[in-house]
Design goal:
Layout (H helix, E strand, L loop, with lengths): L3 E3 L5 H10 L5 H9 L2 E3 L3 E5 L5 E6 L3 E4 L2 E4 H9 L4 E12 L2 E10 L8 H8 L11 E4 L37 H14 L17 H13 L6 H6 L3 H10 L14 E3 L3 H8 L9 E8 L5 H14 L5 E5 L4 E5 L8 E5 L5 H16 L10 E7 L6 E8 L5 H19 L13 H11 L3 H4 L2 H9 L21 E7 L2 H10 L8 H17 L3 E8 L21 E8 L6 H12 L7 H9 L3 H8 L6 E5 L5 H4 L4 E3 L18 E8 L2 E9 L5 H22 L19 H14 L1
Parallel strand pairs: 8-9, 14-15, 18-20, 20-22
Antiparallel strand pairs: 1-2, 3-4, 5-6, 7-8, 10-13, 11-16, 11-21, 12-13, 15-16, 17-23, 18-19, 22-23
């Protein structure tokens, strides 16, 4: 059945031949004749040329996956064989370092002809292949190793560090100092790169603000005290190493014992209670992963028990008083929120049902008053089957950035106990309690007071309400009425979005996505101004000295409203520069809005900010979330359903939630809406318009005419767009 497949090219004319031979046959016999035609699947990969010929490219059984991209090795080999000097070519995906895959090309040349330089090979390949298909390394061989049957023995190909390795395809300068080597290794781990040179740019390699937090955390463990602002100031290994050498070693006072006592609520926590969810204990974040190999439950239990001791926010408890909610740290408990369920005896379908049932029950089991706020379940599916690990945590004490730290510590603690070693996790960073106290102090500062004018001016300009299919809904906008429509950008375009396109105007990915959203909004609402609630990671540790929250677990999210507008008919380049400029006017990553609204003791200012009209649409870019799995060999995403993270009767604060993330090398944009307000067709149309706009922006950024400056590139000049354009015109004329 796998080799002899129905012929997809069968035509009705073929059946007419049978009619001519046997005119007495019925129409059903004719259809049976057509459907019985079969093709033999050879496994050869070919290209059908316009002249009707088939060009052989290689074998389809050599498909690999590197950094989330599925790659046909035969297509690369065929491209290499087109070089006149190359006799044969073999491409393999090697994993010489654990968790780091790279493409390596092995070449043989015709007698008397030297192999082309790697730079020439790479440059030519990029004319017909996407960048992720260009091999990282090229090795010249006198002859290919062969099996006894005369076929190429791919397993016998030498490691690419051999002496006959060709010069690399792009200029590479190795790190020169111990600091540079340490940073290059950290970047390679976080970005999933085989190696990083001293002049490589963090953001051109696919880095973003969320991944920068992981770099800062790992640098701190290596004894390098850096901040996210340092990475934006000097985005190369050499530049960052120089800043690390110049920066004084900040004294980070982080309590290493158990944090006890009360802590102020942060703005995002106060906002949560302001929404008054009917079941406040059911508002979670959860994760279900497949486990590579069978786990030892006793070691896993001890690893889970270590998490609340290491990350104090997991021991928070909440109490409602007559005035407000408060939070206090509970002491260490011997009651570990962990259980093992042995499902090995069940058939596969029953295993899936049991996993989903138990996960849904765990979602409803958390208790913000008495605890726990964390629950872990290990599903043992038997020998030879990857088990499942389900983790659910209340959102009050965790955010997306925290998950990577939790997964790293869980894996490390488990491995240590499995080897009989005591659990030793990295030193604690600034406690969530201390961060909350610093925020409460900063909220009363005169520096923050100056931001109030910015937020009030945003609302004063006005915007168009969200178009509704059902202006008078018969039911409330709750989680039970929510549906999600997902659109996905192809792997090649996602790679361009992360690495190449932002370079044209000095953008980040979030600014490109927001520009596409404004363009789609203009078509949908016939409005040039979008009033949107933006979600950011909120870890602006540069606000304070002596603070390091790069590995601190907690809910740090900052949410703020923003008005984004474009002039009618704006071209792609103008649109990108305009939205970039407007987004970069937001002070300190938007953290001040929540501080003014929820923590400012000046009642007049707090009332003014609280009186701003809330947006009806929210936007959140989560970054490369599945990067957390790329260097954690123990875990991989699982497919079973885990039930709703929020109680079904919970009212949704927005009519439309737009959430973007990078999953397995592709951009996924989820559009969550309520059936009481919008038809599915309306949201699908909006999502298509967004994706069309984004693809047009990416394509524009890759053209030779793309590029230009915005006022945010020159913060010290205090110019608007028109003044900067006039200045640049003068400079061009002078030049």
């Amino acid at each position: 059945a796998e080799k002899f497949v129905p012929d997809p090219f069968a035509r009705i004319e073929d059946s007419r031949l049978k009619i001519a031979d046997s005119p007495q046959d019925s129409p059903s016999a004719i259809l049976n004749f057509q459907s019985s035609r079969r093709l033999y699947r050879t496994g050869d990969l070919v290209r059908w040329l316009p002249d009707g010929n088939l060009e052989y490219l290689g074998r389809t059984d050599f498909q690999v996956k590197v950094r989330g991209f599925r790659i046909e090795l035969g297509e690369i080999e065929a491209a290499l064989r087109r070089f006149p000097a190359i006799k044969d070519a073999v491409v393999v995906a090697r994993e010489d370092a654990p968790g780091v895959k790279r493409l390596v090309a092995y070449l043989t040349s015709h007698a008397g002809t030297p192999a082309p330089a790697a730079a020439e090979l790479r440059s030519s390949l990029l004319e017909t292949l996407p960048e992720y298909m260009a091999p990282a390394t090229y090795v010249s061989l006198a002859a290919m190793p062969q099996t006894p049957n005369g076929k190429i023995d791919r397993k016998a190909l030498p490691a690419p560090d051999a002496a006959d390795r060709l010069e690399e395809g792009r200029a590479y300068e190795p790190p020169g100092t111990d600091t540079e080597r340490a940073l290059a290794e950290i970047w390679a781990q976080v970005l999933g790169q085989p190696r990083v040179g001293r002049n490589d740019n963090f953001f051109e390699l696919g880095g973003d603000s969320i991944l920068s937090i992981q770099v800062i955390a790992r640098a701190a463990q290596a004894g390098l005290r850096l901040t996210p602002k340092h990475l934006f100031q000097a985005p190369t290994v050499a530049g960052l190493a120089a800043l690390a050498a110049l920066a004084p070693a900040a004294a980070i006072q982080a309590e290493q014992g158990l944090i006890e006592g009360s802590a102020p609520l942060t703005p995002i926590q106060r906002r949560f209670f302001e929404l008054e969810p009917p079941r406040p204990s059911h508002w979670n974040q959860s994760l279900l992963v497949a486990v590579r190999g069978r786990l030892e439950p006793a070691a896993l239990r001890e690893a889970v028990a270590a998490l609340p001791r290491q990350h104090d926010a997991l021991r928070l408890r909440f109490e409602r008083t007559s005035a407000n909610w408060t939070q206090t740290h509970a002491g260490a408990s011997d009651d570990v929120p962990f259980e093992t369920l042995d499902l090995a005896a069940l058939p596969e379908a029953a295993q899936r049902a049991a996993i989903e049932t138990q996960a849904m029950a765990a979602q409803r089991s958390l208790d913000i008053v008495h605890g726990p706020l964390l629950r872990v379940i290990y599903f043992d599916l038997g020998a030879g089957s990857p088990g499942r690990l389900f983790i659910v945590i209340h959102h009050l004490v965790v955010d997306r950035v925290s998950w990577r730290t939790l997964l790293e510590d869980l894996a490390a603690a488990y491995e240590q106990r499995l080897r009989g070693q005591p659990i030793r996790l990295p030193a604690k960073t600034t406690a969530f309690r201390d961060w909350a106290r610093r925020l409460a102090e900063y909220a009363q500062s005169s520096q923050l007071q100056t931001e109030a004018a910015f937020w009030l001016s945003q609302a004063a300009q006005g915007s168009t309400p969200l178009p509704l299919d059902y202006p008078q809904p018969d039911r409330p906008n709750t989680e039970a009425t929510a549906h999600t429509h997902c659109v996905v950008l192809g792997a090649e375009e996602t790679r361009s979005l992360l690495t190449q396109a932002p370079q044209a105007y000095g953008l980040d990915v979030k600014e490109m996505l927001m520009t596409a959203l404004v363009l789609a909004w203009h078509k949908w609402a016939d409005s040039d101004a979008l009033w949107v609630q933006v979600e950011a990671h909120g870890r602006q540790q540069d606000l304070f000295g002596g603070v390091d929250i790069s590995r601190t677990v907690g809910w740090f999210t900052a949410i703020y409203p923003l008005r984004l507008s474009l002039r009618p008919g704006a071209q792609p380049g103008d649109a990108l520069k305009t939205i970039k400029e407007q987004m970069r006017r937001v002070p300190e990553g938007g953290i001040g809005y929540g501080l003014l609204r929820y923590l400012r003791t000046d009642p007049a200012t707090a009332a003014q900010i609280a009186g701003l009209r809330d947006a009806q649409i929210s936007f959140n870019y989560l970054g490369q979330f599945t990067q957390a799995f790329d260097d954690l060999a123990a875990f991989a995403p699982a497919e079973e359903a885990t039930g709703p993270d929020r109680a079904p009767e919970t009212r949704r604060p927005f009519l439309l939630d737009v959430t973007a993330s990078i999953m397995q090398g592709q951009l996924r944009v989820e559009w969550t809406y309520s059936e009481t307000a919008h038809r599915t067709t309306s949201i699908e149309s909006l999502a298509r318009d967004f994706m069309t706009a984004l693809q047009a922006l990416i394509a524009h950024c890759l053209t030779s005419e793309a590029g230009g400056y915005t006022p945010s590139d020159f913060p010290d000049l205090d110019l608007d767009s028109q003044e900067l354009a006039a200045l640049m015109d003068e400079l061009d004329e002078d030049a």
